[in-house]
Amino acid sequence: MTKISILVDNCAYTRGMLAEHGLSLLVEHDGIKILFDTGQSDVIVSNAENLSIELQEIDAVVLSHGHYDHTGGLPAILERRGQTQIYAHPGIFTERYSKDTVGRKDVGVPFDREQIPDAYLKTNTKPVEIFKNVWLTGEVPRINTFEQTERGFLTIKDNKMATDLITDDQSMFIQSDKGLIIILGCSHAGVVNILDYITKITAQRRVYAIIGGMHLGQADDMRIQLTTDAFMALEVQKLIPLHCTGFRATAEMFWKMKDKCIIAGAGDVLEL
Ligand SMILES: [Fe+2]
Ligand SMILES: [Fe+2]
């Protein structure tokens, strides 16, 4: 069994839990505890306490990409946990902005690279198995025409502002007895691109569960429909849209997939 506790999400539906724009999931599989993303602040510490989760017991941290709302809680965790293995793409520390924060506040990782000693940072750009049956995708090829390249994010290239493609975006997946369990950060690569890539590299089309952020807040109706259709074509059994999926996309998924679509937030624990 795989157990996923939602430690940070944009929504909280349970007493005492705090919500913030961000994502953090504690994934327990075969006795291993992996923290997938950290939220943006020390909200994760309070929420973990509320759920009686010991952050000291985490075996590893995965950072899905270098945005503040997925990485900002890391210093608070390391303060309590001590150093632990951290997995991420080598590009996570890129300087980055969203279009409305240029000149004010960057949206990149809000702490210095030096806070993670080299020995504890394991980087990958290709698929890698980090624990038995637990994989990171590395960079995901962006192939679908309906999942447009990111346009709302900027970075600095040759001293000039340039579009940030967020190529460091990666997802995690578990090859479980029931099928694939796919864990998304923000899906900047496009959630259908991510699904296509994982089903291709594993040669496995049985997708049991998908959980995480799908970044569809600005997506048009066509993209939302094609995304939901892709989940249905794969006969996904449990879909848990979180964080940046957006209300319209979540509503469409819930409408079409009925009780296979689970509405959850910080404090909810899913046994998959
Ligand atoms: Fe995000
Ligand atoms: Fe993001």
What does this structure look like?
With 272 residues, the chain is an alpha/beta fold. The chain has a single domain (2-265, 267-271), classed as Metallo-beta-lactamase, Chain A. 21% of the residues lie in helices and 27% in strands. It has a seven-stranded mixed β-sheet with strand order 7-5-4-3-2-1-16. Strands 8-9-12-13-14-15 form a six-stranded mixed β-sheet, with helices on one face. Helix 5 runs parallel beside helix 6 (247-257). Residues 67, 69-70, 186, 213, 243-244 line the site of one fe (ii) ion (FE2).
Summarize the structure in short.
The protein is of the alpha/beta class.
What features would you highlight for this structure?
single chain, 272 residues, alpha/beta, Metallo-beta-lactamase, Chain A, 7-stranded mixed β-sheet, 6-stranded mixed β-sheet, 16 strands, 27% strand, binds fe (ii) ion
SSE topology sketch:
Layout: E1 2-8, E2 24-29, E3 32-36, H1 43-50, E4 60-62, H2 68-71, H3 74-81, E5 85-88, E6 96-98, E7 121-123, E8 128-131, E9 134-136, E10 153-157, E11 160-163, E12 172-176, E13 179-184, H4 191-202, E14 207-213, H5 221-233, E15 238-242, H6 247-257, E16 269-271
Parallel strand pairs: 3-4, 4-5, 5-7, 13-14, 14-15
Antiparallel strand pairs: 1-2, 1-16, 2-3, 6-10, 8-9, 9-12, 10-11, 12-13
Helix pairs in contact: 5-6
Bound molecules: fe (ii) ion (FE2) (2 copies).
